[in-house]
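Students often ask why we bother encoding 3D structure as a string. The short answer is that it lets us treat folding as translation between two languages. Here is a chain of 197 residues written in the first language.
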Amino acid sequence: MSVWPALTETGRRIGYARVSTRDQKLRMQLDALNAVACDKVFSDPGVSGATRNRTGLNKALNILKPGDVLVVFKLDRLGRSVLHLADLLARFEREGIYFCSLSEGINTTSPHGRMVYQLFSVFAEFQRELIVENTMAGLDAARARGSQLGRPPKLAPRDVMHIHECVYRHGQNLDEVAKRYEVSTKTCMRAFKRVGI
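And here it is in the second language, the structure alphabet:
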């Protein structure tokens, strides 16, 4: 059975491929994306999944319109973390963009595939709460041991999670969100790293 039911006439298939090192080849992913007739394919050769700024992915995300499908060979090619992936999928759902991962057979143009959006959204909220809870528990434990924690961070864990959600789930500009919190984008990026997202 094909992972491709009929798509709307206006929908395009936008492919995205990534390999982590320059030694790896994109060939297998590109062959798979071409086999399902992607209209355009963007790639990030030699770019780690942990890298926040991926030129190929950013280009792909910028051209997606409602009714389009973002196609990847494997789920781990898209998100740098489960939380990042969940935020992207929630953004796609909100913007009317479909998603297909060929290896896992995920296709959100189908009713069963759309359930994936809901599962990832719930998981993202759960993971956000765990990160905040664990960060606060770690700080409390350090204080109880008498540790000097240094200057308090400009952003509380809950603020960090909200900024991350605004940018990666709702597609807001990081510079604008940072200004609302009266911090720099570098402060936001360091905060993401500090809480592990």
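Translate back mentally: The first strand starts at residue 13 and ends at 18. Keep this in mind for the problem set.
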